[in-house]
Amino acid sequence: MSTQPLRWCIKMLKILNIHGFASSGTTTTAKWLAEQYRDATVLSPDVPVDPHEAVDFLQGLVAAEQPNLIIGTSMGGMFAERFSGIHRILINPAFEIADSIRAHYGMGRQDFFNPRRDGASYFLINKALIDAFREVSAEAFSHASDEGEDAKVWGLFGRHDEVTSTLSLFRQHYSRAIVYEGGHRLDDHTRIHVLAPVLGWAIDKVLGRTRPVMFVALEDTLMKDDGTPLGSAAHAFAHLSSIYDVYVVAETDWYDSSHAARCRAWVEKYLGVAAYNRLIITPRPDQLMGDYFISAKAQPDFIGTHIAYGSADFREWKHVLTFFDRLGGQ
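Request: output the structure for the sequence above.
Response:
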């Protein structure tokens, strides 16, 4: 684990937030980022309406500011993808934005959804603008196959996106696509439960930060016999995942594909994005290498610290959280 103080590490973080179509740098997500990462530098400019001008503007900004993390929403996701070599999070990226504009906005006057710093309140959608977006979006994925690029890109896709749907296109080029319950635009729930966990993982990569590894048993610790979550297990998992590198462990004597599918479905349904790609199915969980193991069952050969869920000291999840909050992330 890094010995550098967390706050000092965050000061090394520079985030560029690129907004969506007909929006501005004063979006709620931009304000949320600035609030969540007060010690970091958060850049959230107004992007020019013309996409060719926008590309030139963003290229100049990236060259001058050298952000180490870019977050792009919708149109901003399409723009963000092109900046190879930088860690990027693409939220409902509009890689087919020309078609989306035609289908959802049409021609003529379009008011900006958020105030612009130059005071502009509207712009015009015409054929030239749509053609320009088609030209710029055709340049997407030009560096996706470069070495190391796949590990630098996250894609977040709302299952009920009513504006665009480019999940299958994204998956042709990148492997880390997360589908969440939500629509095209972000709300507070999505920012907290979808964006925040992915931001944490991306920032760890950017800063070279490591966290103590924690395993949590699925059966009898997270899940009841009837298949429902145990107590405040989902909340506890999300909280611990914001501090530790947490994995869900399902114990089985032999690999059963149907059992594995049920475990994955349960984790996705009840634990959400915080548990993305973090399910381990093994016959010997006590042989896993990590710092902590929370389980109702004894783990005799685990070399880290075993937290006996349901014991006198850890009867409920609130007692577990109190213990780890006192540790302060150690």
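Residues 6-207 form a domain with the Rossmann fold fold (CATH 3.40.50.1820).
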